[in-house]
Design brief:
The complex is a heterodimer of chains A (302) and B (308). Chain A is 48% helix and 13% strand. Chain A has an 8-stranded mixed sheet, with helices on both faces. In chain A, helix 4 packs across helix 10. Chain B is of the alpha/beta class. In chain B, strand 5, helix 9 and strand 6 form a beta-alpha-beta unit. The chains are: A alpha/beta (302), B alpha/beta (308). At the A-B interface, helix 2, helix 6 and helix 9 of A face helix 2, helix 6 and helix 9 of B. Bound molecules: guanosine-5'-triphosphate (2 copies) and magnesium ion (2 copies).
Chain lengths: 302, 308
């Protein structure tokens, strides 16, 4: 097992024996932030801010440095929570009863963990007493529907699917009809992985969202963009392009059980104001946690 | 999105014209730009540090060539150094022996593109190298992982060894090996489950699979979008399993792919192929100069330099 050390611990080692904030301390701070994929721009700005405060003698010792840095990062991560618009909910357990079915779409580039996250989410929402249907709108990748079907069986929920190669918007349509006729509470749409620079695939996604809205007022109520914690700087461009195409309401950061920190979400929260909703911490149904800015910030410095 | 390094250097070095040698002042100014460009391209922090030092040594005291501006000259030094670190000019091929079957083991993190790349590689070997591959998936963990490889095998017309009655990766691997020997397949591609480099149990499993199968190639499939953690995961896979090469997948995206440089410099293993799409023909040989251009966000300036 790896040793766990929090922000304070790591910074303590960083500044061991040093009471004053030296240039080396700031260099190492930069290394930690860039190493966590926070992004060059965000990191340089954060370090610059701290450097200025040190120069102006507003920040004198390493204890203050720790506190200020933690606050800066937390502020970046918390800001978007207030700005969530539309009918997206703070927790899937607060879904307003007047919306039925509540339609969620899960999107992202290839292999980030969309299908697995859907299984975990469905499991969570079902456990709270909701009727959940999943929609296998990835009709492209080999055995994508089979994968979702295995998960749906484990969770104990129905899956709506079609032959491979079917227009995914048609599967969304089917799933919404099924949800309405069965009076289901929630529909979660699994979409195929797609790179954000592929215009035709992004148009296909937009069409799915449009069909959902045509069939259910204000749908999709929620669009979760899934990001792999190991993703580097490209994550920001992914978020920009997906948010441009469909009404993304939040992020899910997967594979945080590895050693990657997923720091790019800081840049995304900052630029696009998207809140991080959940984190994935494994390949089993229970390996999903509500995002905690505090835990996340502390882990950046582990 | 990113300002090309060459543009930045042009600005940075404009104020420093008129010298006959690349001076310390030139170099220091340029190094800041180079460093940021590499970090933005996801080259690992430590690798960037080493790289910048090497470039500094090469550049310092060089005569300024008549045909190039100092900015172009620095770009050329950076580019040449990077191409060399990435393995030089030629793309490397796979090492086959006369043994039957030659085993190729596909390994990597979850979702990196192993299963898809297994299909692509098998198709490539059958079509371009006249090999007779058999495929097997020993991913008994991910839901429908084996179905995925079966569908791929059908799509590319290459047989897949299957045994739905067992969930034992070793049994599957051994039986597929025997099947290949028996039926005269000269190549066995083994698709393994995705795993984290810190998952001790699954890393041990992989090491044991390797010990039993004696693969001629153990290929690490890495996602081109991976960031700073690339070094850690690749290094741990290499130390525990022993890699012989890398496939960089999802290069059809717009990631700069700095991980290529990180993985290559930290493991010393060559990048052999790049994946450029979800279809099974979307596999290309790796060309260090192309990736170097992409990491540095140039191409235009390069063609300019080439004409000189
Ligand atoms: N360790 C770990 N693995 C995960 C996590 N979430 C997903 N995975 C694994 O990542 C791999 C890809 O997951 P999928 O759910 O198939 O990803 P996807 O985004 O649906 O992939 P495509 O549909 O092919 O684009 C699988 O091996 C999952 O088991 C996580 O939180 N931690
Ligand atoms: N655009 C693009 N997508 C790719 C490429 N290679 C793989 N993919 C996609 O990436 C996703 C994951 O690929 P898989 O082959 O299932 O990955 P894996 O490593 O076998 O995943 P696990 O077995 O879950 O660890 C799928 O959606 C693939 O279609 C590529 O070169 N380009
Ligand atoms: Mg999927
Ligand atoms: Mg696989």
């Amino acid at each position: 097992r790896r040793t766990r050390q929090n922000l304070v611990g790591r910074l303590d080692t960083l500044v061991r024996g040093k009471k004053v904030i030296s240039p080396e301390v700031l260099d190492e701070l930069e290394e930690i932030l860039i190493g966590a994929d926070i992004g060059v721009r965000t990191t340089l700005e954060l370090v610059e801010k701290i450097r200025t405060q040190v120069d102006r003698k507003l920040l004198n010792d390493t204890d203050e440095l720790k506190r200020v840095l933690r606050q800066e990062l937390l502020a970046l991560l918390r800001a978007p929570v207030k700005s969530v618009s539309g009918r997206a909910v703070r927790s899937e357990l607060d879904i307003p009863t007047d919306i039925r079915p509540y339609v969620m779409m899960v999107v992202g580039v290839n292999g980030v963990g969309k299908t697995t996250t859907i299984a975990k989410l469905a499991h969570l929402i079902k456990r709270e007493g909701n009727d959940v249907i999943v929609c296998a709108a990835d009709t492209f990748r080999a055995a994508a529907a089979d994968q979702l079907t295995v998960w749906a069986e484990r969770v104990g929920i129905p899956v709506i699917q079609q032959k491979p190669g079917t227009d995914p918007a048609a599967v969304v349509y089917d799933a919404l009809q099924a949800a309405k006729s069965r009076d289901a509470d929630v529909v979660i749409v699994d979409t195929a992985g797609r790179l954000h620079n592929k215009v035709n695939l992004m148009n296909e996604l937009e069409k799915m969202s449009r069909i959902a809205r045509r069939e259910v007022p204000q749908a999709p109520h929620e669009v979760l963009l899934v990001l792999d914690a190991a993703t580097g700087q490209n994550g920001l461009e992914q978020a920009r392009q997906f948010a441009k195409t469909v009404p993304v309401t939040g992020l899910v950061l997967t594979k945080l059980d590895g050693t990657a920190k997923g720091g790019i979400v800081v840049a995304i929260a900052r630029e696009l104001g998207l809140p991080i909703r959940y984190v994935g911490t494994g390949e089993q149904l229970d390996d999903l946690a509500v995002f905690s800015p505090e835990a996340f910030v502390d882990s950046l410095f582990e | 999105m990113f300002e090309a390094l060459s543009e930045k250097l042009k600005k940075t070095l404009k104020t420093l014209r008129g010298e006959s040698k690349l001076t310390e002042a030139h170099i220091n100014a340029a190094m800041t730009d180079i460093r940021i460009a590499l970090l933005e391209a996801d080259v690992n922090y430590g690798v960037v540090k080493q790289f910048v030092e090497r470039v500094r040594e090469k550049a310092l005291g060089q005569e300024v060539w008549q045909a190039l501006s100092p900015a172009q000259q620095v770009v050329k030094i950076v580019f040449d150094e990077m191409v060399e670190l990435l393995g030089g000019g030629a793309a490397s091929d796979l090492a086959f022996t006369s043994q039957t079957p030659n085993v190729i083991l596909m390994v990597g993190l979850q979702g990196s593109g192993k299963t898809t790349s297994t299909g692509k590689l098998a198709r490539f070997l059958a079509q371009q190298r006249k090999r007779h591959p058999l495929l097997v998936s020993v991913d008994v963990y991910r839901p429908a992982a084996r179905d995925q490889l079966s569908v791929i095998g059908k799509a590319i017309g290459i047989p897949v060894y299957e045994d739905p009655t067992t969930d034992d990766p070793f049994k599957l691997a051994r039986a597929a090996y025997r099947e290949a020997q028996l039926r005269g397949f000269d190549t066995l591609l083994v698709d393994t489950a995705g795993r984290l480099h810190i998952d001790d149990e699954l890393m041990v499993e992989l090491a044991q699979l390797k010990a039993e199968l004696h693969p001629v190639e153990t290929l690490f499939v890495a996602d081109a979008m991976i960031g700073q953690d690339a070094v850690r995961s690749a290094t741990e896979f290499h130390e525990r399993i022993g890699l012989t090469g890398v496939i960089l997948s999802k290069m059809d995206g717009d990631a700069r792919g700095g991980a290529a440089l990180s993985i290559r410099s930290m493991t010393g293993q060559p990048i052999k192929f790049v994946g450029v799409g979800e279809k099974y023909d979307a596999l290309e040989p790796f060309y260090p100069d192309r990736i170097a251009q992409r990491i540095l966000g140039m191409g235009d300036v390069l063609s300019l330099i080439e004409k000189v």
